[in-house]
């Protein structure tokens, strides 16, 4: 059965791979994007998730075009890396505002329809950094770790209405962002990964699609690592 799926930050990288995975399975897929060009083949809605009015407008547009959101993948996020003593209040606050508070906004709006329908799937995209930590990424790690507590609270709160809420925590993924790193940096990162390579975006997307499937109906509050073993034990 074709479902209404929304992927935030779905115009590139992991988000685009997730959107394509759902579309390939026959779902109706909408994506939000903040900048750049919208991807072809999807219901693309420009939306800055730090703006509550834009979030509300985006949902209205998606609902008009493909019905209430039945599967939400909260993927949109930013980084502003800096060592602690050089990190400004703005560096810290802006990352939490997008990655954590922005996720709160999109999930809260989706939950309204899911509660009415008494069913739904919510998947939050965190990071191995949220569990493992990373020098120079205290803001990003705090925001991604916060998603775990947020998801598990929602799993308890919404579970009686047949709504699941899970987290996928990718490791280093082969995207435009990581390709911009120098060869030495890339080799150093790969050297820490037991499987000895970067993840493909499609491998993250497969885990997300599984968590939104009927086969995963009894999984909620879980954190699924897709990191090649980098963060194991956390």
Structure commentary:
With 234 residues, the chain is of the alpha/beta class. It is built from eight helices and seven strands; from the N terminus they run E-H-E-E-H-E-H-E-H-H-E-H-H-H-E. Strands 3-2-1-4-5-6-7 form a seven-stranded parallel β-sheet, sandwiched between helices. The longest helix is centred in the middle third of the chain and has 29 residues, at 89-117. Residues 3-176 form the Ketoreductase domain. Belongs to the short-chain dehydrogenases/reductases (SDR) family. Keywords: Fatty acid biosynthesis, Fatty acid metabolism, Lipid biosynthesis, Lipid metabolism, NADP, Oxidoreductase.
Question: pLDDT below 50 for ≥5 consecutive residues: which ranges?
Answer: none
CATH fourth-tier homologous superfamily? NAD(P)-binding Rossmann-like Domain
What percentage of residues falls in helices of 4 or more residues? Answer: 40-55%
Q: Indicate the radius of gyration in whole angstroms.
A: 17 Å
Q: What class, by secondary structure content?
A: alpha/beta
Query: What is the level 1 CATH name?
Result: Alpha Beta
Range of strand content: 15-25%
Q: Which series of helices and strands comes N to C?
A: EHEEHEHEHHEHHHE
Tell me the strand order in the biggest sheet. 3-2-1-4-5-6-7
